[in-house]
Amino acid sequence: MRFVSTFLIASILLILLPLNAAAEEWSMEWQVDLGEGYITTSPVIFDGHLFVRTSGFWTGDERPQVFSFTLEGNEGWNRTSPTTIQHDLSPLQPVASGQGDCGTWPDLLLIGWADGVVEAVHPSNGSVVWSATSLVDGWGITGAMALNEDHVLIPTRNGMQRHCLSNGALDFSTNLSLGWRNGVLSTPDGYWQGDEQGRLWMVNQNGTVETSFDFGGAIRHTPLAVPTGLLLHVQYPTESKIMHLETETMTATTLQTSGPSPAVPIQQGNLSVFGDSDSITSVLCEVICTVQDRLESTMNGEFSWSQSAQIYAPINTPEGGWMVIQIDAQGSFLSNSTFTTAYDGYGTAAPAFDESSLFLGNDAGWLMAYTNSQSTAEMTSYDWTPLLGAMLVVMLLTVLASITRSSGSEWGLRLFALMVLSISLLLLQDIAQQWSERLPPVNEPTTQGSWDSSWPETWLGTQIVVFDFGDDEKVTRGGFLGHETVETLTQAALEESGMAAEIEQTEIGPYLLSINGQSGGGWEYFVDGQRGALAIDSAGIESTTILHWRMV
Amino acid sequence: MFQAFGVHGPELTPVADLVIDVVLVTFAFAFLITAPRSNRYDVALLGTMVVAVTALRVLMQPLPNVQPVTVAALLVGAQLGARRGVAFAILVTLLSNSLIGDGWWTLFQAAGWSSVALLGSRIALVKNGEFNHGQLYLTVIASAFLFDAIASLSILTSAMSVADFGIYLAHGIPFDILHALGNLAFAVWFGPFVHRQLGGLESSNTFEQSVVEHHVIDG
Q1: Distance from CA of B177 to the nearest CA of A (A)
Q2: pLDDT tens digits, one per residue of B70-125
Q3: Among B167, B217, B198, which Cα is nearest to B77's?
Q4: What tens digit of pLDDT does each residue of B165-203 get?
Q5: With a cut of 0.85, is the ipTM above it?
Q6: Contacts of B5 in chain A (CB under 8 A)
Q7: HSE-up of residue A329 (Cα within 13 Å, Cβ side)
Q8: How far apart are CA A201 and CA A98, in angstroms?
Q9: Between A and B, how many CB-CB pairs are < 8 A?
Q10: Is B200 on the interface with A (CB under 8 A)?
Q11: In whole angstroms, what is the distance from residue A336 CA to residue A22 CA?
């Protein structure tokens, strides 16, 4: 009787388990290597095709490109810019055909290049419909464009330009200040755009500057419009601030102080999500704007929303991957997991979604396509797997209890041990992952994969710098200790070598131009075989790092 | 000697690999030779156990951190003494790693399982010829953590602090627990069987010793 009642109670408790919506399950469909460049901005799906751009070429004759693919992974066309430079990360802007006061236009794909050129191309074949130029000061166009009826607003290096969509005719060009990754927000009242000096500009429909506000830090994203004004994530030297600007009174309020290197925030209705090197933060703006939730992560790129209202955020660390966050309408982070691929590493590009597919890429330069193995309808249905598994466990325990009662403890113990081991094996991966996420990261010795056997063994376990001038001309110095950034280690190696370097201070950090007067096509650095993606004063190194400087 | 520092400790040159293997084999046979005298049957049985446990380890490699060698080393050490136990541990490590993958870590795995064999020889798992199940189960659980801690030493370099190593060990706790549960399952299922097999080995040694002593006395 006690046995039966215990079994029934256990079964009833299991039935009361809360309903659990099925998680998205993705399976790889196809992948394409886009070469040496980074995929730094989200692919774009338009008119049944996938468009993606790459950036950051330094080697050989390869240059930044824009590719067109079918959704099945067949390449349609690619467009190479022979003149552009690094930082080609302005998001591609699709434009549906239309007409307006300044003319009619077909379907277009707008491309902003880092050499200041903006092109409108036919999505079907990549041929240029019109093009325009803008100022280049180090670089040109890096921010997100905005559409305004029959015009396009372009954030140029030093200001804002508005062009007619039908023929690219310039409406106005307004000088503001130097910017980087600064997008334009188009509103009925005018156009908002930030700059590297921390000033937020408001430009009227006729191109004149209406007003501005000084935040004192760099603004590197398109401002977000909320009922009460604007939201911005402002970058300061060692931190960032999520700020609200009341546009009626031009009064700014800090909602949250957070980590450095803000990401490009995303918005859906009254809910906005921000990221930086410390955390992901949600902000809900109703009567007032309030911070709703925070999640630890390193996120410096773009966000995107999936079809099932999950946020995907590229994790910008060597381990990479994309954080998948379930968020409710109030901005609470309900759960999070990591979407991993075979090419995980540094990344800033968000995935693109269509009905049942996901397209993504990162600094590894692989474009990957996944399909959802569950339909949308199935995802909202009840998942019986946990309940069935739990019932199986209960039944096994019941059998064990019965065997133990009748045959003695020996067989009962054997079956119990086997059951526990089996369940542990099944749960190990999830438990280990959850456990590791709660611990500090392991500071493992860095793999010196490029160790040269000709180097002295006294350099083992120290920091080493290689200056590669090409044509087998290399200068190597080692035995350094205690350097924490690429910059300080480089300076130490240069000093020991008796070489001089020209370093330019730019808005995004120091930039090495030449060593001993040699600049070639530029200098790029690799930390333990990984191409550097940060300014040299921000790029951290390990105690056993091998730093390669290579002249292109 | 070291080509580079890999993520599992130094990457060994082929010569260094060979040196370590030769040293380990030498130790193993030294322990075997200095162990109490055995006849051919005993040697064959111990050799068979080495091969069987090696095969089991290779077959179970897909199961993360389920190590039958730990329980086997403990039981061999408990019933046949420290020397045979250590020799058994070293030979199984060398033989199985030649199939799975040999490197710097082989040294530490051999040391780990040898320590387990030594632990087995120091703990009274058998009393009056009867198997102490409770003591065995507790010891196999502890052996998992002992082995994992020793084997983890292979990743230490001069650049790693004690705190870093502690964090590294902490990350491995779920796998250590799985190792312990695997040991427990093996001990529960196969402990008595192995005990019976090794019991024949042990009793044959005892019989031979008493015969020798008897003849000496007679002599």
Answers
A1: 9
A2: 999 999 998 888 999 999 999 999 999 888 777 788 899 999 999 999 999 998 77
A3: B198
A4: 888 888 889 889 999 999 999 999 988 888 877 776 554
A5: no
A6: 445, 447-448, 451, 460-461, 544
A7: 2
A8: 29
A9: 82
A10: no
A11: 14
